[in-house]
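quick q for whoever's on today - can somebody do inverse folding on this one?? i tried earlier but teh output was garbage lol. tokens:
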């Protein structure tokens, strides 16, 4: 029956096509489900979103075909015609996708993390979707260890698996932006033109978001060697693998990548190329406020490991009295801390150490003995308490009980009359943070609120957590980079001091009693320096 055979010949490609379509539909389905959850809460309060949500569902149905499928797709043009209406979406200016490109070990993840921290700090809610995480998730059911075989360009099944992982990440980027966030960072390799075209078509063509490609390149063998070591140390792919085998595997994996690598020379997309060895930056078609900020942030990015030291000033006479703000001098115990700090740092002989202090007397006096160039920066001054400068918490409760309660209700946003809020302080210290991001071996001597902000930045704290972070007196704090994260260590020097941490009280209402307001005020003394002025004898003031 030769006609039957012919029939099968005809059917086979159609069957294959149907399967591919089903796969796509399935993925669109998965995406929509996630989408639902994120849209509903948002739609609840906007005036009328019935049109918008219709658009959302439309755009998700027209999923981008993968690079392979695109090549086989004879009527690719039809798709772009169909999606043209959606390109005029009002969300065109709402979200930005930053797509990282480049070979492994070029510092893409570090750059992505640095950008994400700065963008979040500035109120552009940003999240990184790392394709390698999605790839590991897809592989999990098979229980296979990741090996370089996965990255061979001639292995079709594995290439498809990696393409799926990339699309998982792309879906989550889209979901993140649909939920009303500003920036999604796709941490991928995107080493071929086809992959970049897929990303651009999906986000820009179909969903109407702005796309910015950042390509990381690097030819510096020293930097590369260091980055490879970091990958072997921190990447989940090599956790628990024999080091020699892991190193061999990574080399082979990079060789596979280099075989299919097509440097980014497209002139049609907004893109930035950054050489993470020399920190040279090249741009093409970059516009938009987020993109311009990103370009600025890249100027203070570093992929080199670095270490920063922080300390509050030694205990001041105001600390002893439990007062905030002001420009008091150190107490006797504070001076002892200053000496101990200098002795410690001078003994460590840290190469090219620099010291930054605020312009207030207590930080300058604390750092004076440290043998290193010193800079006094106004941006490091303590959060200004306005009308409450120089008051103790008891006095605040007495004179401004309403202000005191409001501050407890929202310590992050509360701004002292004629003074500052934590939000203000976060913005004020940003230039210092930018400098610290690219600096190594700097000692910053500053104040409680300001150090909460700076250390919180490096530790990826949420803004709401900052005002309650503990930054004790007489303690050296070391922040050092580990891959793209930071580790935090405290070294308490054995010199007594008061505790200045005031925990949020349970009752924050404006009509609370003075006792309720003051219950968490830490103990302090009633004269400025009981150790220098003995005589009347110090009295510890304690609330409870
Ligand atoms: C998504 O929305 C559809 C209808 O709008 C609803 O039937 C479905 O239950 C929703 N799914 C989830 C996960 O919320
Ligand atoms: C939104 O528009 C639909 C019809 O377009 C209307 O039925 C609905 O009441 C509107 N909702 C709000 C919250 O305005
Ligand atoms: C929805 O879109 C249609 C045409 O696209 C328009 O006529 C209608 O006013 C829109 N409704 C709302 C509530 O925006
Ligand atoms: C960074 O920190 C996260 C969460 O703490 C952790 O999952 C990840 O493995 C860390 N990455 C590196 C490179 O240290
Ligand atoms: C300071 O007080 C806070 C709140 O009572 C407490 O959590 C913290 O452990 C104290 N710190 C020291 C060094 O005693
Ligand atoms: C706070 O104190 C006020 C006045 O004493 C009282 O009415 C209120 O219930 C208290 N609130 C809390 C949360 O304890
Ligand atoms: C979650 C949220 O903000 N809900 C608000 C939506 O708007 C109504 C009135 O317009 C408020 O009462 C809700 O609190």
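ok took a stab at it. sequence:
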């Amino acid at each position: 029956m030769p006609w039957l055979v012919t029939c099968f010949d005809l059917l086979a490609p159609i069957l294959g096509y149907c399967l591919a379509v089903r796969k796509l539909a399935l993925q669109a389905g998965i995406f929509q489900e996630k989408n639902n959850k994120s849209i509903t809460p948002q739609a609840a309060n906007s005036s009328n979103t019935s049109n918008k949500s219709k658009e959302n569902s439309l755009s998700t149905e027209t999923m981008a075909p993968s690079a392979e499928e695109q090549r086989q797709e004879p009527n690719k043009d039809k798709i772009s015609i169909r999606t043209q209406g959606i390109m005029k979406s009002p969300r065109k200016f709402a979200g930005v996708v930053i797509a990282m490109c480049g070979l492994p070990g070029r510092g893409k993840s570090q750059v992505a993390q640095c950008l994400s921290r700065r963008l979040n700090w500035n109120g552009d809610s940003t999240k990184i979707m790392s394709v390698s995480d999605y790839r590991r998730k897809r592989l999990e059911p098979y229980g296979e260890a990741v090996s370089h075989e996965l990255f061979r360009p001639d292995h079709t099944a594995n290439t498809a698996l990696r393409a799926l992982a990339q699309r998982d990440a792309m879906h989550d980027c889209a979901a993140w932006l649909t939920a009303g966030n500003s920036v999604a960072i796709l941490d991928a390799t995107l080493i071929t033109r086809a992959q970049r075209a897929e990303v651009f078509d999906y986000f820009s063509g179909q969903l109407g978001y702005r796309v910015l490609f950042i390509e990381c390149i690097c030819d510096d063998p020293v930097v590369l060697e260091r980055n490879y070591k970091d990958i072997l140390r921190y990447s989940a792919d090599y956790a628990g693998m024999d080091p020699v085998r892991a190193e061999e595997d990574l080399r082979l994996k990079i060789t596979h990548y280099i075989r299919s690598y097509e440097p980014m020379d497209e002139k049609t997309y907004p893109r930035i190329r950054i050489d993470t060895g020399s920190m040279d930056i090249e741009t093409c078609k970059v516009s938009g406020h987020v993109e311009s900020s990103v370009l600025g942030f890249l100027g203070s990015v570093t992929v080199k490991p670095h270490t920063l030291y922080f300390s509050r000033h030694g205990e001041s006479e105001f600390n002893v009295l439990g007062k905030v703000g002001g420009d008091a001098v150190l107490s006797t115990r504070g001076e002892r801390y200053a000496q101990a700090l200098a002795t410690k740092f001078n003994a460590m002989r840290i190469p090219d150490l620099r010291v930054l202090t605020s312009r207030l007397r207590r930080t300058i006096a604390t750092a004076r003995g440290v043998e290193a160039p010193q800079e006094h920066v106004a941006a490091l001054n303590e959060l200004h308490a306005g009308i409450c400068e120089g008051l103790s918490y008891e006095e605040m409760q007495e004179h401004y009980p309403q202000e005191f309660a409001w501050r407890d209700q929202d310590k992050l946003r509360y701004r002292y009359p004629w003074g500052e809020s934590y939000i203000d302080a976060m913005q004020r210290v940003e230039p210092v943070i930018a400098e610290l991001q690219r600096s190594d071996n700097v000692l910053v001597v500053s104040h409680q609120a300001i150090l909460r902000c700076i250390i919180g930045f490096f530790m990826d704290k949420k803004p709401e957590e900052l005002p309650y972070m503990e930054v004790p007196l007489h303690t050296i704090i070391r922040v050092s980079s580990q891959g793209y994260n930071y580790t935090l260590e405290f070294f308490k020097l054995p010199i007594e001091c008061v505790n200045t941490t005031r925990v949020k009280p349970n009752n924050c209402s404006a009509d609370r009693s003075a006792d309720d307001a003051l219950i968490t005020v830490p103990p302090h003394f009633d004269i400025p320096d009981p150790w220098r002025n003995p005589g009347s004898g110090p009295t510890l003031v304690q609330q409870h």
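fwiw The domain at 305-517 is CATH 3.40.50.1240 (Rossmann fold). also Residues 12-92 have pLDDT under 50 and may be disordered. so keep that in mind when u check it
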